[in-house]
Amino acid sequence: MHRWRLCLCTSYPTSSYNHTSMAYHVRVHGYFCYSQMTPGPIGINAATFVGTRVAGLPGSIAATLGFCAPSVIIMLILGYIIKKYGDVGAVRGVLNGLRPAVVALIGGAAILFICMSLFGVDKIAIDPNNIKYLNIIIMVVCYIIIRKKLMGVIGTLAFSGVLSLILNTVASHT
Q1: For residues 141 and 163, what is the distance between their CA atoms, to the nearest angstrom?
Q2: What does pTM read for this prediction?
Q3: Looking at residue 86, what DSSP letter applies?
Q4: Residues 80, 81, 83, 84: is their CA dihedral positive or negative?
Q5: Cβ contacts of residue 55 below 8 Å, gap of 6+?
Q6: In what helix (H) or strand (E) does residue 100 lie, and over which residues does it extend?
Q7: CB neighbours of residue 49 within 10 Å
Q8: Computed from CA positions of residues 49, 55, 56, 62, in that sequence, does the dihedral angle turn out positive or negative?
């Protein structure tokens, strides 16, 4: 176990838990540590869980609001600034400059997901001997479905999951 993780986990009280094994405490505290380092649903769930454990329903509400409030406040302030000063040349220039960066981030993630799906690697290194042809078929079918608007995005995602399950099951039995 990493030394930094143990250091971060010492701030959580262990006396409020019903379980007594040290392994349980280390594992649960590790989850809390990781959830506090990443934004999103894990963090909000951990905040709600810890709030409930510490102070019941009021603690749960307070922890959840405390987790969400900083982001909401920052976004409200930024929204107000953009609304008020959005037509100023410097602010408009900054916003226009952010667009290519956002496109690059989304594009980079898309390329990484394509490499993971089609080649089974988590880096941009294509090995022709490791191509997953069934996933290419699924990708092309889903692209056609979305382009021709035969199904919505959520339906296409569900369809691709079911199609992948069927094709990979059939391929593994042949």
Answers
A1: 10
A2: 0.46
A3: T
A4: positive
A5: 62
A6: helix 89-119
A7: 16
A8: negative
